[in-house]
């Protein structure tokens, strides 16, 4: 059944729908697959495994079935769950279609606001709604690192991460504590590499992924401490900007030392 659904999607004309790659969040991409299956193939419901296979084989985007299931748990009335013979099937609802249409109307831009004094909630939100939604390798620029930064990164799975920071920005005692924590963190997450940039011209905070660019108003460790925001731009919206920032990142990465 799984291969049969993938085969039907393989040569399907979806020009009447928004571009799959214009969506950056796992929820939206999962809903897109359900939408197309329902409208074009008259397939009312799919499992998370089927959705993940379609994303991987047809759209060349790797999404774990478990991530799709988690995203749908938070989808509210956008999706309906059918429990049949030990399997969970998902069906897109009208509000799910309206949600996908409204996302495109935003021109691929999402704004996240962080209230002051909400450190725990903000850290959890960054992890579950931003970092987990990013696809492919991550390149992160954040001039101020801390233990809270590692707390956010620990839950994003096996993504390859290049993290560019500036250790000399930290006070001596904070720096020493962070370096101890980082050593233990990397021993469990060898796919993540941290480097320290030697110059003082590292100011901006952003994340480059395979599907989007995230601009941060504050360092990851400080989100929720003060009023702040994050802007997520789809790759189609920020293609030129991503190109420039990627080149700049690569140059600085070569100049930096491994922490």
Write a brief caption for the model:
The chain has 259 residues and is α+β, with helices and mostly antiparallel strands. Helices cover 42% and strands 20% of the residues. The chain has two domains: 2-105, Winged helix-like DNA-binding domain superfamily/Winged helix DNA-binding domain (Arc Repressor Mutant, subunit A); 109-258, Endonuclease, Chain A, CATH 3.30.870.
What's the average pLDDT? 89
CA-CA gap between termini: 48 Å
Number of continuous helical runs: 9
Q: Going across the biggest sheet, name each strand in turn.
A: 4-10-9-8-5-6-7-11
Q: Estimate nothing, just give the exact number of structural domains.
A: 2
Rg calc = 20 Å
Secondary-structure arrangement, i.e. CATH architecture of the largest domain: 2-Layer Sandwich
CATH class of the largest domain: Alpha Beta
Number of strands: 11
Helix content: 40-55%
Sequence of secondary-structure elements: HHEHHEEHEHEHEHEEEEHE
Backbone shape? elongated
CATH homology superfamily of the largest domain? Endonuclease Chain A
Give the assembly state of these chains.
Answer: single chain
- The fold-level CATH name of the largest domain is Endonuclease, Chain A
Low-confidence stretches: none
- How many strands, which pairing sense, and closed or not: the largest β-sheet? 8 strands, mixed
Written account of the structure:
- The chain is α+β, with helices and mostly antiparallel strands and 259 residues long.
- The protein folds into two domains: 104 residues, Winged helix-like DNA-binding domain superfamily/Winged helix DNA-binding domain (Arc Repressor Mutant, subunit A, Orthogonal Bundle); 150 residues, Endonuclease Chain A (Endonuclease, Chain A).
- The protein is built from nine helices and eleven strands.
- The strands form two sheets. An eight-stranded mixed β-sheet has the order 4-10-9-8-5-6-7-11, with helices on one face.
- Helix 3 packs across helix 4.
- The termini are far apart.
């Amino acid at each position: 059944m799984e291969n049969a659904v993938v085969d039907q999607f393989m040569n399907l004309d979806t020009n009447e729908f928004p571009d799959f790659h214009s969506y950056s969040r796992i929820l939206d991409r999962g809903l897109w697959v359900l939408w197309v299956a329902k409208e074009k193939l008259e397939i009312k419901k799919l499992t998370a495994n089927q959705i993940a296979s379609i994303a991987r084989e047809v759209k060349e985007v790797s999404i774990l079935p478990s991530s799709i299931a988690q995203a749908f748990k938070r989808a509210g009335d956008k999706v309906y769950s059918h429990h049949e013979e030990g399997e969970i099937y998902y069906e897109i609802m009208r509000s799910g279609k309206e949600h996908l249409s409204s996302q495109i109307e935003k021109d691929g831009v999402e704004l996240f606001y962080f209230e002051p004094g909400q450190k725990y909630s903000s850290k959890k939100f960054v992890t579950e709604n931003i970092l987990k939604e990013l696809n492919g390798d991550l390149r992160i620029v954040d001039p101020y690192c801390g233990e809270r930064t590692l707390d956010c990164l620990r839950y994003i799975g096996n993504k390859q991460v290049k993290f560019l920071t500036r250790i000399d920005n930290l006070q001596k005692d904070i720096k020493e504590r962070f370096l101890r924590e980082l050593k233990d963190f990397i021993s469990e997450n060898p796919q993540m590499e941290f480097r320290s940039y030697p110059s003082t011209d590292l100011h901006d905070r952003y994340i480059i992924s395979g599907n989007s660019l995230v601009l941060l108003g504050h360092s990851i460790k400080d989100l929720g401490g003060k009023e702040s925001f994050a802007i997520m731009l789809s790759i189609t919206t920020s293609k030129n900007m991503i190109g420039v920032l990627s080149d700049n990142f690569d140059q600085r990465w070569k100049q930096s030392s491994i922490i």
